[in-house]
Amino acid sequence: MLPLHSIGRSARPGAREAITGTTAQDARQDHPCLRSCQPGERKRHLAFRASGTWRSAQWEGQRKRKAEHMHQAERNGYPGGRRFRDERLLAAKVTAVRAAVPGMTDVTLRGPAFARFACKPGAHLPVEVPGGAQGPVLRTYSVWRHTPADASLTLRIALHHPGGPGSAWAGAVTPGERVRTGVPRNRIVLDPRARHHVFVGEETGAVPLLTMLDALPPGAVSHGVLETTGPEAEFPAPDGERTLRWVHRGRASAAASPVLVAAVRRLELPPGPGVAYVAGEAATCRAVVRHFVTERGWPRFAVKTQTHWTPGKCGIL
Ligand SMILES: Cc1cc2nc3c(=O)[nH]c(=O)nc-3n(C[C@H](O)[C@H](O)[C@H](O)COP(=O)(O)OP(=O)(O)OC[C@H]3O[C@@H](n4cnc5c(N)ncnc54)[C@H](O)[C@@H]3O)c2cc1C
């Protein structure tokens, strides 16, 4: 039987013939999406044939993400899992602000709800920040450290220039100030079945990626590369021990960064696809995904991405 990743790839033009024949058909029949289908639906999915398996896999991914979001929200005490409704923002207080590395600051928040949160490594949450004339706006930040016993969590925020409302808030906030946040959610999560893990991102991506690296069980094989401005701006995972190799772009923009893509190209990885986690600026993420899929031949679904920002767009949630 064909491995499932070869089915995902079969939707790409020219690869159609790869899934013809009984073995591929068996694999399609065995696809997790089709197994959970009602008979009518199953027929419809199978009718897609080559492209159908790809669409089904996507559909299954969306269904799982939605279920996971609802589950997390329920666990955190938000039945129905509705998102960021005003009344659902949680009150917290800034308890500490500390320069982490040049260009990044740690903001620690404490709020009663943080004691109940179940945060998976790499989780993020929306934070309400002053938006000037337009009133408060939401900006998304990854959870760098979560201490339920203390009902606190720490965010590591990039101070970019010229800053938007999020960056301005992080640069000026002081302990004692009040803030409201949403509940944590996950977009990329560790895949425990991966043969090996690859982490790629710039400094904002490094925040969730290093917390995920920290959470890998002992013996898990990990690789990766992170990008920042210079050696002084590098930082290790929250436990302070594990880290990844860093490359430096100097004063150049992190948008569509050729430095990071070239470094990924140079990575020596074990044979066969593992799971890659790519986070940060959108165009760089796309270039890294293209590299894994077209140059290394990895199935698209083995490359998990989380885009954080892109020039000209404000407040990606
Ligand atoms: C799931 C998720 C997790 C995130 N986690 C983190 C995190 O842990 N730490 C963190 O610092 N950021 C994180 N971000 C990114 C952060 O939400 C954005 O950078 C946010 O837009 C910054 O808000 P702002 O108000 O400063 O700028 P905005 O008003 O949103 O953007 C204004 C302009 O500033 C530029 N810009 C935005 N961000 C950057 C940047 N980082 N570097 C250079 N230029 C930029 C762009 O040109 C943009 O058009 C995350 C985003 C997402 C979606």
Automatic annotation (TrEMBL):
<dbReference type="Pfam" id="PF08021">
    <property type="entry name" value="FAD_binding_9"/>
</dbReference>
<feature type="region of interest" description="Disordered">
    <location>
        <begin position="58"/>
        <end position="81"/>
    </location>
</feature>
<dbReference type="InterPro" id="IPR017938">
    <property type="entry name" value="Riboflavin_synthase-like_b-brl"/>
</dbReference>
<dbReference type="Pfam" id="PF04954">
    <property type="entry name" value="SIP"/>
</dbReference>
<dbReference type="InterPro" id="IPR013113">
    <property type="entry name" value="SIP_FAD-bd"/>
</dbReference>
<feature type="domain" description="FAD-binding FR-type">
    <location>
        <begin position="87"/>
        <end position="191"/>
    </location>
</feature>
<feature type="region of interest" description="Disordered">
    <location>
        <begin position="1"/>
        <end position="37"/>
    </location>
</feature>
<dbReference type="InterPro" id="IPR007037">
    <property type="entry name" value="SIP_rossman_dom"/>
</dbReference>
<dbReference type="InterPro" id="IPR017927">
    <property type="entry name" value="FAD-bd_FR_type"/>
</dbReference>
<dbReference type="GO" id="GO:0016491">
    <property type="term" value="F:oxidoreductase activity"/>
</dbReference>
<dbReference type="InterPro" id="IPR039261">
    <property type="entry name" value="FNR_nucleotide-bd"/>
</dbReference>
<dbReference type="InterPro" id="IPR039374">
    <property type="entry name" value="SIP_fam"/>
</dbReference>
<protein>
    <recommendedName>
        <fullName>FAD-binding FR-type domain-containing protein</fullName>
    </recommendedName>
</protein>
